[in-house]
Design goal:
By secondary structure, this protein is an alpha+beta fold. The chain has helices at about 1-15, 65-80, 100-110, 125-130, 170-180; strands spanning about 25, 30-35, 40, 50-55, 85-90, 115-120, 145-150, 155-160. The N and C termini lie far apart (about 40 Å).
């Protein structure tokens, strides 16, 4: 009986302990790109939301389809309890990946256009954003990072997640939940 009495306060204490805040790894500048629907997309529409970003291109036969499938899993995993989480896939091939091409690609991955945005723009704007995310230049080589980026409500980078790691998806989902729970 004594053991139960002593362990109950410890259990209550551990339930009240807040997780360590995620590190701030940078802040994204404002940006304007173009959505798969051909509409201007302003970063202001992401302010106040937790969001996940990746860089892909539609003709990729390597990691991009897997990354987009993973992004769909994030969309599905957050659709009930965390509908406020947004997803952003940014092309590294703006010459080919026009809005209509991105729209077809997005449909293939069953995107929810109210939550998952496929974006393009001119190379300079895409490179500026890629460099701000510490991932990318858009130089026509079509080489790109396979990492996902987690961004908080204040446009601060809070995590990088390498798709090849076994703990990638559980860690990303844990950190999304942590940011969603922190309404500051």
């Amino acid at each position: 009986m004594r053991l139960v009495l002593f362990s109950l306060p410890l259990l209550l204490l551990s339930a009240c302990v807040k997780p360590k805040p995620l590190e701030v790894m940078g802040t994204l500048p404002p940006f304007q790109l173009t959505s798969a629907e051909g509409q201007p997309f302003d970063s202001k529409s992401l302010a106040g939301h937790v969001w996940v970003a990746d860089f892909v291109y539609t003709t990729c036969t390597g990691p991009c389809p897997m990354m987009s499938s993973t992004m769909h899993r994030v969309q599905t995993s957050t659709e009930n309890e965390m509908r406020d989480v947004k997803l952003v896939s940014i092309t590294v091939d703006p010459e080919h990946d026009t809005p209509p091409v991105l729209a077809e690609y997005a449909k293939h991955f069953k995107y929810d256009p109210s939550r998952w945005y496929f974006l393009t723009g001119d190379k300079d704007h895409l490179t500026d954003l890629g460099l701000a995310m510490k991932l990318q230049t858009v130089d026509g080589s079509l080489t790109h990072s396979t990492r996902f980026v987690l961004v908080d409500r204040q446009m601060r980078i809070r995590g990088f997640y390498t798709t090849g790691e076994d703990t990638f998806m559980p860690k990303l989902m844990h950190d999304i939940r942590q940011l969603e729970a922190d309404k500051s």
